[in-house]
Amino acid sequence: MARFGGSRVAAAAVGASMLVTLAACTTPDPVVTGERPNSPTATSTPSRSAETDPAKLALDLSKLPGWTAPTAQGDGTFSRPILDTSGKVTWKVLDGANQVIKNYDPSQPVAFGDSSTYTKIPGVLTFRGNNYRDAPVYGTTDVSQKKLQVVWTQDTGDVYAEKSHWAGAGWTGQPLLVNWPTATKEAMGLSQAQIDDPNFVEVVYPVVDGNVYRLDLATGRQTKPPIQVGWAFKGTGSIDPRGYPLLYSGMGLNQNGDKTGTWRYRIFDLIQNKEVSGWDGSDPVAPRRGCSPVPACSPDWGAFDSSSLVNAATDTLIEPAENGLVYKVKLNAQFDPAAKTVSVSPEFTKLNYTTPESSRHGIESSAAAYRNLMYAGDNDGNIICWDATTLQVVWVHPSGDDTDATIVLEDDNGTPFLYTGNEMDKRGEGANGASHGPITIQKINGFTGKTVWQYQIDAVYNEAVNGGLMATPVLGTGEVSDLVFFNLAKTGSQKTGTLLALDRKTGTVVWKRALAHFGWSSPLILTGTDGHAYGIVGDSSGLLHLFNPNTGEDYSTLQLSQNIEASPAVYGNMLVVGTYAKKLYGIRIS
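User: That's the sequence. What structure does it adopt?
Assistant: Structure tokens below.
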């Protein structure tokens, strides 16, 4: 597991001290090619549904393939068998006063539409852009020169916590890129030039030094002073997809040097530029109550690395937490552009579940959603599916080890499929733990939880910096729509990694590239204005690769300072990412 949702790699990372706008790949990493059985012969835009009404979108759980009703255990606790094992998952639902709701069946369904309907606001407003977690890039990109160049930088800070040094932007640490509506820009009091510019995009970036930076994407200049919180953000925030000036982001560490704070999930008013609401992560009903070894599983660990989803149609936020709970929050959000006010009044419902594997508890991945079905991997190696409306657990799929990387969802003609993978973590713990072992990448049927295919590769155990899949995979589009791409850490050694392209239907290896330096940063696929696809991925040496996703070979590279652990986001021709060098970078793709 990424022990605290991030890495301690900063102290050991070696990065270049100078920026190089273009570095040719003089010693290319070896690429092994395989068959490509489903290469697209033509590219077309898939049909998308514009439906957003939860009442029409919600699936009847009793009609799912292989459905059986849960068993009531008494006192509001329910159970059902876990897939492919003799064990069972049990769960209960609690209200905001921490009272068990014996038969939670709300009249208003919560269901998400097609990922294209998650937000009408242009940009990347949550981790990987939407409820399928498949859109870290907004728009098309002119890649005619196949170059990457630093346009601006923003200095940040660091913290010392949990006997380690945390700097810049860590895992998952993706920036949010927002092309706000004019009325929202006016309410936030941005400059007249920014209000009048339809192409103005704001970077909203909560990072490790405990600040939320607000920057002009084009220039890197601050649009507002940083919101100073004082406690580290390691995960990725979320902007309200209705265009409301609200930022949702949770605390990643509760220590800063000799200071210790209260765990908190925070809601920010971007008009007043301050926190206005939130809740405590040290929840008295949280199942994470301490485990061994310490401090790897500290008592009452209440971090929030997951990037929330907001269901605009029902004014509902969903946030899995590292304390082991899943929070369903009725926001009661109100935005009055004319009065220049925004407010929230949260009401809480909580899912508390456990399985025979549950010793750590906690979810660091960000939930994906298909209609009313939601998915996440947890620190105990459970991949869970729950109903967003009733919060009942639909199925549990054992993955074999800690699963922190966010699941990517594919809608294949009305059936959801999940792409996921685990780490070399729990199996390495203790005196008799393994020093290395296979990690498993899987495609899973989202209705049944059954494995469609799997691929295994050896990864090295490291207590502080896990090997395996920490980076979220990315689905190919256009000419590479038959492929799914994975960036794997510590395959073969503590230093090296693997960039992997698999056929989406069969799991066949199309190409596999050995990387001199591993990465936790999630890869991107760009759609070029020329119709071709381009890939970008960062590694722990600070090298940013612009590569051909058909072959895995680099077009060019850009050397940044120190480890690129955070995941980048792209709007048009601009990429933003932070590194352990205590810098945020605005990078032009050309």
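Residues 1-26, 292-298 have pLDDT under 50 and may be disordered.
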